Amino acid sequence: MTHKKKWLIFAPAGLMAIGLGNCLVQWAADKKRNGHSTTEWVAAGTAALAVFNAGISLFGRGVVEKVKHDLQEKPQELDYANVARL
Fold first, then answer.
1. Which chain regions cross the lipid bilayer (predicted)?
2. Number of domains in the chain
């Protein structure tokens, strides 16, 4: 799979997971506000934060793939100052 394809998969997936995680955090906070048991809202909050952090990781991977794609597409420029030292 190319870096471009990976970028086009990971970045949007990360953004969707971040959004979902954010919604789930609000849902867990609502559970606490409405007096649900501690176990219930803590479990919901833990799952929400796991989804949110997974989204950040996926988006970060998308950024890495975008940089790799850009480096691969950009023609390599020679640094003549360093070549002279070789």
1. 7-29, 41-64
2. 1
Residue-level pLDDT at 75? 72
Gyration radius of the chain's alpha carbons: 21
Q: Which residue range is the domain that position 56 belongs to?
A: 3-85
Q: Nearest 10 degrees: CA dihedral of 79, 80, 84, 86?
A: 30
Compute the distance between CA of residue 29 and CA of residue 34 in angstroms, rounded to an integer: 9
| Tokens encoding 66 | 């975008």
Q: Tell me, yes or no, if the pTM score tops 0.90.
A: no
